[in-house]
Design goal:
Blueprint: E1 5-6, H1 17-29, H2 39-59, E2 66-69, H3 72-86, E3 93-97, H4 102-113, E4 117-121, H5 131-137, E5 142-146, H6 160-170, E6 173-177, E7 196-200, E8 211-215, H7 230-233, H8 241-256, H9 258-278, E9 282-285, E10 295-300, H10 305-314, E11 317-318, H11 334-338, H12 343-347, E12 349-353, H13 363-379, H14 382-395
Parallel strand pairs: 1-11, 3-4, 3-5, 5-6, 6-7
Antiparallel strand pairs: 2-8, 7-8, 9-10, 10-12
Helix pairs in contact: 1-8, 2-8, 3-4, 9-13, 10-13
């Protein structure tokens, strides 16, 4: 292996060295429990609340509206289960989309098993929810709508402002999973006006094991972890102070590192352009314009994506076949299937997600290696060779 290139930033990002340093400092120096009334505990509480203020400011929220959790998945679950249980008097109808992260879809499936009625909105071939579909699906007993801001597999950006405005007119709570949006596009809770919003530290060069849920003031949610009443009784359990402080440090660094986010987007755009020039029969999944350009999901006709992933890994290139949380699943991507891809097209696809570890200098090796691997696998594919023969004969 002559080179190592990481192209899986949507799965997780490498923690910034300054984040690691901050976590180490807090871990060794500030060991108190933030709930303790003595000076050691209150020192810890000061760092906790300072971190809460940093995250709140990033979202345009008030510190009291931020709940720290153990992950983005937990934050999604708290939003969905919490809103569903707290608003049963309004109704037991819930709406989401077919391309949500499993943290949302699995929560909806569980609530359906418990007696809630759920509606799964379709998306078009580019991964967009149609606001008209949401509007026509809302009912008097709809308690919550949950639509992600940026899709983790294809990078499509949803029309959240329109969707949230529709629910607000009807007095329905709106939650958005913004885990893949933070650090890539502006994320402010008043643009659009959402009621609940999820972000996660390890997607923005912070530590794993900590997330945050924004809960608009006045929005009722039921807790699903009980104990000492931490986080204003919305999420019990002693706060993971070192990771929370690391989360806040990562948020602070986002503005400083905005140029590197721009660079990741530019690398993604150039990668796609050069990939299409180098390889025939490459299909982009997702919206051609309304997407985060650092996320590139492409299908390579005539090959198996998992085989290509393994081949690239042996050449030092780390990519993904979809959501890292569903690795090992034997079914094709639910996102690509919902977008209308047949099984063969879905199984021929890989996701390349770029970030701070990438620069334009990576592209020569990336493109050459991918082209060589695709060519090798296609030469081994009797189906692809037969299709090419038919195509050539047809042109002749």
């Amino acid at each position: 292996m002559s080179k190592s290139i990481y192209c899986d930033h949507n799965a997780t990002t490498p923690p910034d060295e300054r984040v690691i340093k901050k976590i180490a400092e807090i871990s060794t120096r500030v060991f108190g429990n933030p709930s303790s009334p003595h000076r050691v505990g209150q020192e810890a509480k000061g760092h906790l609340e300072e971190s809460r203020a940093v995250v709140a400011d990033f979202l345009g929220a008030q510190p009291s509206e931020i709940v720290f959790t153990g992950s983005g998945t937990e934050a999604d679950n708290l939003a969905i289960f919490g809103a569903a249980y707290a608003n049963q008097d309004k109704g037991r109808h819930l709406i989401t989309s077919a391309i949500e992260h499993h943290a949302v879809l699995a929560a909806f499936e569980r609530l359906a098993e418990l007696g809630w009625e759920t509606t799964i909105l379709p998306v078009d071939s580019q991964g967009l929810v149609n606001p008209a579909d949401l509007k026509s699906t809302l009912r008097d007993d709809t308690a919550l709508v949950s639509i992600m801001t940026v899709n983790n597999e294809v990078g499509t950006i949803q029309p959240i402002e329109q969707l949230a405005a529709i629910t607000r007119e009807r007095g329905v709570l709106f939650h958005t999973d913004a885990v893949q949006a933070a650090g890539k596009i502006p994320v402010e809770i008043n643009k659009p006006a959402v009621d609940l919003l999820t972000i996660s530290a390890h997607k923005i060069y912070g530590p794993k094991g900590v997330g945050a849920l924004y809960v608009r003031a006045g929005t009722n949610i039921e807790p699903h972890i009980f104990g000492g009443g931490q986080e204003a009784a919305r999420r019990s359990g002693t706060e993971n102070l070192p990771s929370i402080v690391g989360f806040a440090e990562a948020v602070k660094l986002l503005s400083e590192k905005s140029n590197s986010n721009d660079q990741a987007a530019a690398v993604g755009e150039e990668f796609l352009h050069r990939l299409r020039d180098a390889i025939d029969d490459v299909r982009l999944h997702g919206h051609p314009d309304r997407r985060v350009t650092s996320t590139i999901n492409v299908g390579f006709a005539g090959i198996n994506g998992e085989a290509l992933l393994i081949g690239l890994d042996l050449q030092g290139i780390c990519v993904s076949s979809g959501s890292a949380c569903s690795t090992g699943a034997i079914e094709p991507s639910h996102v690509l299937t919902a977008m209308g891809c047949d099984r063969a097209a879905a199984e021929s696809s890989l996701r390349f997600s770029f970030g701070r570890l990438n620069d334009p200098g990576d592209l020569d090796y990336l493109i050459t290696t991918i082209a060589d691997e695709v060519d090798r696998l296609r030469r081994l594919s009797p189906t692809y060779r037969a299709e090419q023969k038919v195509s050539t004969n047809g042109r002749a």
